Amino acid sequence: MQLTMDEIINAVCLNIAERRVIKPTEVTVEMLWDEDLGYSAHITVQGRDWYINEGSLIEAITQYLDREYGIRAFQDQITLDLTDEIIAHIAV
């Protein structure tokens, strides 16, 4: 199974919204990849910006898989990959 970049962004929006007790539409996410730092995302909520690392992205994906697909995946079953866009591969 794999998730598209849009689904990964949705996963992050839902995760951040749940933590901040806000609507997912109030969260802006820009996916990033850097040769030195790997995968990350730039998050904007209510005018505040911060970055989350690959571990936080994968945590959001595991929660999304459980919530949206009923799939209980462990973090070591999820890998991020960069093709034309960032995608997540899930070994289920």
Provide the descriptors you would attach to this structure in a database record:
3-stranded antiparallel β-sheet, 6 strands, DUF2653 family protein, Uncharacterised_YxcD
Verbal overview:
Helices cover 35% and strands 37% of the residues. It has helices at 5-20, 54-69; strands at residues 2-3, 27-34, 38-45, 48-53, 78-82, 86-90. It comes from Saccharibacillus endophyticus. It holds the Pfam family DUF2653. This is DUF2653 family protein.
Kindly estimate the percentage of residues that lie in beta strands according to DSSP: 35-45%
Q: Label the overall shape.
A: globular
User: Roughly how much helix do the residues carry, as a percent range?
Assistant: 25-40%
Oligomer: single chain
Widest beta sheet: strand line-up: 1-6-5
| Rg (C-alpha, Å) | 12 Å
Total of helices? 2
Mean pLDDT: 96
The description of the largest β-sheet is: 3 strands, antiparallel
Pfam families: DUF2653
InterPro entries: Uncharacterised_YxcD
Organism: Saccharibacillus endophyticus
Protein name: DUF2653 family protein
